[in-house]
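Per your request, structure below.
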């Protein structure tokens, strides 16, 4: 296929293989990014400027959200980000995992939004992740996913 024919196919929306690849790549990147946020919490290691990200999550859940069982909820957040991130990257149980991530990102955006101005502290990142998660909750894992492989048997 010549470059001109490929460009015409892309502009006309007729290059399904490229669309599938782009969706799979986006899903994998999103999942791996979430994994990098969950792994330090699960391992008890530092993450960027946070010396103890698990303690920070538990403190946020306890002090800002005022929810009971903050350590347990912190662990569930770490598992969602760590294990769920890997599941999302592979396209395994994509819709439910993405929906849980969307709920997490909505909570982060709502609670921290007023203290994280646009651009200055980066509230746009959890907002973008919220919409990525909503996309995959609606779209599913796509053709190149463990979900599709399991459905085919």
């Amino acid at each position: 296929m010549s470059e001109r024919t490929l460009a015409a196919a892309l502009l006309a929306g007729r290059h399904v293989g490229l669309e599938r690849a782009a969706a799979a790549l986006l899903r994998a990147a999103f999942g791996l990014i979430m994994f990098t946020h969950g792994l330090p919490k699960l391992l008890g290691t530092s993450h960027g400027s946070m010396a103890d990200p698990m303690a920070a999550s538990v403190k946020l859940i306890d002090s800002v959200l005022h929810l009971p069982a903050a350590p347990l909820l912190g662990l569930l957040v770490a598992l969602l980000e760590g294990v769920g991130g890997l599941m999302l990257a592979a396209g395994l149980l994509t819709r439910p995992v993405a929906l849980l991530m969307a709920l997490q990102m909505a909570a982060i955006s709502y609670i921290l939004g007023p203290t994280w101005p646009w651009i200055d502290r980066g509230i746009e990142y959890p907002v973008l992740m919220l919409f990525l998660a909503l996309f995959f909750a609606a779209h599913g894992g796509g053709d190149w996913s463990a979900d599709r492989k399991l459905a085919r048997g």
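Residues 142 and 149 are 10 Å apart (CA to CA).

Regards,
D.
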